């Protein structure tokens, strides 16, 4: 006997959440039957194989602390579900690959491992437990970021170096942040910061800032001819900054209690079109016009083509795409 169920979980980062689960006989598992059957496994500090599927006699999971090994499973399973739902509701996409196929998640990878990664060869997600095994990398924006590497691999296949690598990383930040806004979760409200929950620096600051990427000390705010020489997590700043400006516009703004102040390279003013239109334009560009070798100049034309398809070539949306790229010095 098998049945799709709805469990409840207490996550570390997103409060109490509902979980897609499966009841087999008298045992529940973190198998999301409503979303392709996405499973979440416990690697128990190993670093290979799938580990052990989370199973239980009751459909109540985790306690919100990292000491309870189910908790990271709750966050990861919830992040996969919200990402799936975002792709479906907002991008009209059936899963990461677009064919309804579920990925799977592995948590408790290695020991105090401070990273998370998508692996396209297993079509799977892996999460470390973070510093001192206390801050697993399972926050919503990180989950959405990592799984969106699978989305990019299934669409534009942007090469992971030089400017195309920055666009690959930027795409993951754009959708990671969009997933966080889409979740509308009171414990982790949407923001234009990446990794604000996982305290990867140990001082409470996020990993990246989309309104002004240089606030991290390394990322580029604007395109220059040498931006492709930076690590892809820093050359992504140009794409992140473009997305922020397109969504929210330049200047000072407070969203969900977070203050932003986004500059432009030339002192121009940009009025945003809202993040929903912005991520639809980015997705259309990624899935229709970008290729493995797309650089920033080509990303400008790809997103203009996408905006023209969606809103028309004389639309405010089209003009704002042009203005936002110009404001990050992609002309
Ligand atoms: N967490 C990193 C990222 O998604 C893993 C990597 O270096 N690719 O960017
Ligand atoms: Zn990434
Ligand atoms: Ca965030």
TrEMBL record:
It is found in: Secreted. It is an enzyme of class 3 (hydrolase). Residues 156-330 form the Peptidase M4 C-terminal domain. The keyword Zinc applies. Residues 6-152 form the Peptidase M4 domain. The keyword Hydrolase applies. It comes from the Bacteria. Its main location: secreted. Its cofactor is Zn(2+). Extracellular zinc metalloprotease. This is Neutral metalloproteinase. It comes from Streptomyces crystallinus.
